[in-house]
Amino acid sequence: MAIAKITRDGLIAISILVTILWGCIFAERRITRSAQIETYRALRQMRYLKFRRNVEPTAEPKLTPGAVSGRPVVG
Asked: For 7-25, how does the pLDDT look when each residue is reduced to its tens digit (9 = 90+)?
């Protein structure tokens, strides 16, 4: 003797809800994984740009014939 029976409509509703739940779980994992990949990619790009930034030396001043005196440079 059964105390409660699950009807066919009830089983269909349960299976639909379980399918939706699993779909949400897989979608969440996929979104989380892609966000992690994008974060790592952005950090790697930032690191690359930081290493790539070079300090370029300034050009040496051209010496003119009058500039080669023994006087100290002021300024």
From this structure: 999 999 999 999 999 999 9
